[in-house]
Specification:
- By secondary structure, the protein is of the alpha/beta class.
- It has two domains: 4-69, Transferase, Pyrimidine Nucleoside Phosphorylase, Chain C (Transferase, Pyrimidine Nucleoside Phosphorylase, Chain A, domain 3), CATH 1.20.970.10; 79-242 and 250-310, Pyrimidine Nucleoside Phosphorylase, Chain A, domain 2.
- It is built from 15 helices and seven strands.
- The protein has helices at residues 4-11, 22-33, 39-52, 56-69, 94-104, 124-131, 140-143, 145-151, 154-157, 162-169, 186-197, 255-259, 266-283, 289-301, 303-310; strands at 79-84, 109-114, 135-139, 177-182, 202-207, 221-227, 230-236.
- A seven-stranded mixed beta sheet has the order 3-2-1-4-5-6-7, sandwiched between helices.
- α11 links the parallel β4 (177-182) and β5 (202-207).
- α4 crosses α10.
């Protein structure tokens, strides 16, 4: 089989083209991941979908194929935290410190990603150093080389593709809960719909800094997602009145020094604790965002002690 039938379905012209069904999308992605599709057809399919816009059942079908292609590669985690940069310049990756805080609460976190388009100097070992010993991080290039090659087509095509969305949906550790960041707000609903199709029960999606799951503390943050399989939309109110961009060049933050108390920045600290609070709220159905914020602030204030206890 080739990819031609699937390209024809989505690209045969106005009035005749249609979206792929879940089964068709799953079959098409299986062909791609198993190396049976011509590179021209892969690029053609991805760019047609980029131009037309992604559909939830297509993303779900692609994701199901990826999950089947790479199964059992990671130990089961409590929280899946994808980290795939959106491609714009940004400052310190404060969401890594937020994940580190959440792990200190006993949450098993699996983070997977590729960050070259976000910060070419931030390699896997740099990420692991910021995450600390309690958070597992796996770069996409090692976890699934075939998916990495698809993501890296951005260098040839000049545009992101639906693979970015699929990787956020992947959840290779089979965690019960997932947090996801997006750059474009419309993807919050799309990804929640795709997750519902895949049978996921617990999910939080926000428009985050650089497309990561990272909360802006001076803005209301609208959270989309699923709880017990049902769609939710809830607003986390702004934590600060300070008007400031999330990553100001003039207010650069050293994440390592911030964690170790060698520098102080109230805005950056609120970014960390606010992001951690949304993750804690995601995995605990009995808590509120406000209660999770209190927990996150306690974790931050006592992070050295928590880390010594769990070392």
């Amino acid at each position: 089989m080739t990819l031609a039938p699937f390209v024809r379905i989505v690209a045969q012209g106005k009035g005749r083209a249609r979206a792929l069904t879940f089964a068709e999308a799953q079959e098409a992605m299986t062909e791609i991941l198993e190396g049976r599709a011509a590179p021209e057809a892969v690029g053609g399919l991805l760019m047609v979908l980029r131009l037309r816009g992604e559909e939830a059942q297509e993303i779900a079908g692609f994701t199901a194929a990826l999950r089947a292609h790479v199964s059992g590669a990671l130990p089961t985690a409590d929280l899946d935290w994808p980290s795939y940069a959106a491609g714009r310049s940004r400052g310190a990756p404060l969401y890594l410190l937020a994940a580190r805080l959440v792990a200190q609460a006993g949450v098993r976190i699996s983070m997977h990603g590729h960050n070259a388009y976000q910060n070419a100097t931030l390699g896997p070992e740099d990420i692991r150093a910021l995450l600390g010993p309690l958070v597992r991080y796996d770069p996409l290039s090692a976890l699934c080389p075939e998916a990495f090659r698809l993501l890296d087509l951005r260098a040839d095509l000049g545009l992101r593709s639906c693979i970015n969305t699929v990787l956020r949906m992947w959840n290779p550790s089979g965690a019960d809960a997932t947090v996801q960041g997006v750059f474009h707000p419309s993807y919050r609903s799309l990804q929640a719909q795709a997750a519902e199709i895949l049978g996921q029960q617990t999910l939080s999606i926000i428009k985050g800094g650089g497309g990561e799951f990272e909360r802006h503390p001076s803005k209301d943050t609208v959270c989309f997602g699923l709880r017990a399989g049902a769609h939710i939309q809830q607003t986390a109110p702004a934590m600060l009145s300070e008007t400031r961009r999330l990553h100001e060049v003039e207010a650069a933050v050293d994440a390592y020094k911030l964690w170790h108390g060698q520098s102080r920045d109230a805005f950056a600290e609120a970014t960390v604790t606010g992001t951690a609070a949304l993750a804690l709220w995601t995995i605990d159905p009995t808590t509120t965002i406000a209660q999770a914020q209190v927990t996150a602030q306690d974790l931050w204030a006592n992070r050295d002690a928590y880390e010594r206890l769990t070392a």
